[in-house]
Each structure stands twice: as structure tokens, then as C-alpha cells.
Amino acid sequence: xxxxxxxxxxxxxxxxxxxxxxxxxxxxxxxxxxxxxxxxxxxxxxxxxxxxxxxxxxxxxxxxxxxxxxxxxxxxxxxxxxxxxxxxxxxxxxxxxxxxxxxxxxxxxxxxxxxxxxxxxxxxxxxxxxxxxxxxxxxxxxxxxxxxxxxxxxxxxxxxxxxxxxxxxxxxxxxxxxxxxxxxxxxxxxxxxxxxxxxxxxxxxxxxxxxxxxxxxxxxxxxxxxxxxxxxxxxxxxxxxxxxxxxxxxxxxxxxxxxxxxxxxxxxxxxxxxxxxxxxxxxxxxxxxxxxxxxxxxxxxxxxxxxxxxxxxxxxxxxxxxxxxxxxxxxxxxxxxxxxxxxxxxxxx
Length: 349
What we know:
alpha/beta, UDP N-Acetylglucosamine Acyltransferase, domain 1, eight-stranded mixed β-sheet
């Protein structure tokens, strides 16, 4: 029964997409099955009925451990695509036939098994998963649309990269168009690149190593995002723009087309220019997001005070207390005062 418990855990972790844990469960199921066989052969004076009961129980556990569990792992890994469904059916069918044959005919006249043992299903799958892995691990969520000629998870374009194990993690329901390139992380930058959910990456856009692109971002055609950049939720970056490494673009900011982003752009900001300057707030985006007019007007008034002069820290310290109760204003202030690699984009940039 220990083997059945391990197989149940393997099925559970396969459905969750935690494949390493699922494989550990499958290997332990094999180990307990082998141990069960050794123990059963050493037990003496077993009655015929108890031997028959043990045999039938073993067959039923084997179909779960070596037919159902690896089939579910295969289906989950293949995101339940029809081709993997066919593979799962073949695996379960072969297991059922193998066990039915053994239950009917037993061992050969020499006391040996005939054919390939079922536990090879588990061993072969685990071997493929472990030794088929590249140094870069790319994890792609559910319901993503990835178009032809996109390059996802290939080595980062960083001369310091030396084949270390790093990650690219892509969430759910993203659209990744033709010729998009997304690189995994590097050891020096945190080892992972992350794309959130519901993002649109248009043709020939590029997301470099160690970037964070949060939910609902729209990255237009030919946008190049350099390493370590952080793109907040609901950000829109216009076509042919370039984002310098380590730059931050705050939540719901909008970057005009053909902009060189060298300075951090505040949340809800609007930035354009050959070398980006802050043009104001993304008022249209705020209205579309159904913020109350009072909130938008408060943010707009606070914005004018924060950027009244080049001394942002001094301007923030002089802000009226009522502004600081606004969640929108708080986000902007926290963004400006946070530790950063780049200067804040201002109307004076």
C-alpha cells in the first residue's frame, strides 16, 4: 500500500505541474513494489487464497503506479494536447494488456517474467525528464498562444553567462507573436526572467535576461527590453522603443512609440522622447481602468506638486497630508523613494 500512496502523490503533483515531486513519488513506488516482491517471496506457509488476494491487489496497484500515474504526468506536462492524450492511452492500454497477460499465464516455465516489466514506464519517463533537461529551464503556463519563429528560453545574450542553470517562467494566457525573443535569467541577476499573465508581446519584441514583465503588459512591435528591467502591471510600450537595462516602468504607465527609456517612469506616467521625459499622467488609461474622477484629480494635483521643481524629495516632503491618503499617490511616492539603479524620469529629464 506504500507504493499506492506514493503513486497517488505522484498523480497529485503531476496535476499541479510540480513534476520533480511527481517523479520522486514514481521512483518510490517502484522501490516499494520491488521490496514488496522480496518480502512476499520470503513469507512461508501462505494459503492459496491469501496468495491469490495478494496477487490481485498487486496487479491493481501496478495499473495505478505504472499505467495511470505516468499517463497523468505525460498529459499534464503536455498541457493536455491531443497528441499526449494518444500517448497516455497507449501507455495505459499497454499496461492493462501486460498485467492481464501476467495474471492469466504467470511466470514462464523457467520461473522468469516474459516481456518488459511495467515499472520501466516510470523509470524511462524519469530518465527522460532528468537527462533531457537543458541548463535553462523554461516553464510555460496554461492557454498561452506562441506564434511561429518565436525564440523562447534560449541562452541569454550575456557574455558572463557560462551555462549555469537558470529559468524563464511564463504565466497564463499570454500572446507571444512571431519572432519574439525571451531569454532566461543569469546567475548575476537572480537567475530568472518572469513574464506574468495576459501579456501581449507583438512581432519582433525582445525581453532580455532577468527581466520582470508583470500582468497585462502590452509590448508593441520591435520593442527591445534590456536585462534586469522591470515592467509593471498594465504597462503599454509603443513600437520601436528601447528600454535600458535596470530601468523600471511603473504600473499602468504608457511609453510612446520610438522612445528611448533611460529613466524610471512613475506609475500612471506618460513618457515619450528620444531620451525619455515625463509628459504627464496616463489619464486615458486611468479613466479606462474606471478610477473615480476624484482619485484621478487628486493624483493629477499631487503630480504637479511632486514635479514642480527638480528637487523631488523636497517636493514630496511638502505634500499636503490629504494627498498621502490616496492609494495612487502612495504608489507614486513609494516608487520614487525606492532604491533604484536609474534616475526618475521628470518633465526636466
